[in-house]
Amino acid sequence: MATQDLTAAQFEETIADNDIVLVDFWASWCGPCRQFAPTFAAASENHPDVVFAKVDTEAEQQLAAAAEIRSIPTLMAFKKGTLVFNQAGALPAAALEHLVQQVKDLDVEAALAAQQAQGTPDQV
Question: Where is the Thioredoxin domain (predicted)?
């Protein structure tokens, strides 16, 4: 499955309606963003069961602000509507593959219950 462009109008629905969504916040002028794009696209081909979405922070400035994007590229992963990963910086292919597998394997309900019990932030 190829990556899809995501707008503010589609964001919440995409997160809510899909089991796993990875979102790449990027901009055309960002060198690391351009370097990460082929890695992100290749991963999307390897995982057709995962939604790989891209948000152009220049075109979607309000969405980027709402997501508190301070540096790009920033990668977010959502599972069952819950943010489970949020990190700035381009990931190498192996690290991205590892992240996708971790998100697939994550029992988000159990993780949320454990976090509530410990009071820790939500991160894989």
Answer: 1-105
Q: Which domain CATH number covers 69? A: 3.40.30.10
The count of domains in the chain is 1
Q: Is 33 a catalytic residue?
A: yes
DSSP-based three-state secondary structure for 70: coil
DSSP state of 68: T
With residue 115 as reference, give the H or E element that holds it.
helix 108-118
Residue of 20, 22, 23, 30 marked active site: 30
State which residues form the domain around 18. 4-118
Query: Would you say residue 87 lies in a domain?
Result: yes
- pTM for this model (two decimals): 0.88
Asked if 86 is an active-site residue, the reply is no
Helix and strand counts by DSSP (H, E) for the chain: 5, 5
